[in-house]
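Course exercise 7: structure representation. Students receive a sequence record and must write out the corresponding structure in token form. The form below is the worked example handed out in class, using Phage virion morphogenesis protein (149 residues). Read each field label carefully; the graders check that inputs and outputs are placed in the correct fields and that the protein name is recorded exactly as given.

STUDENT ID: A-19
EXERCISE PROTEIN: Phage virion morphogenesis protein
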Amino acid sequence: MNDFKPFDDKLAGLIAALSPAARRRMAADIAKTLRARQQRRIKTQKGPDGTPYAARKRQPVKAKKGRVKREMFAKLRTSRFMKATAGNDAAVVEFTGKVQRMANVHQFGLKDKPGRNSTPVQYDARPLIGFNDEDRQAVEEIIIAKLSV
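STUDENT ANSWER:
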């Protein structure tokens, strides 16, 4: 049994006592904070557990010369594609549109075709969105700050 179960139950009761508008504002703050934390982590090219992403595969000799100067997922982490939404009871950070499929492939290390006429490629798992202890602590701090006002 979890030692914090009574504390969690009391906290859930306090959150439920908030007005729907206050809960929505709190969820929006949580979603924005989580999105910023995820964007920062993707920029450093690390997974939620702190392990670095797998390196890009070497391109064949016939491919374009030179190195890739752009870091992985530079556009994907922008707020255009990574949305933070909130409701009365939920805070969600997700990828939207067509990039959702690409993010899913990298998140779980699935097979995908890089181009329309190319053969399928097995991608390494590079977790883009995840939850760690620091994220949980940040959410708890936001909740406590909102309840103390």
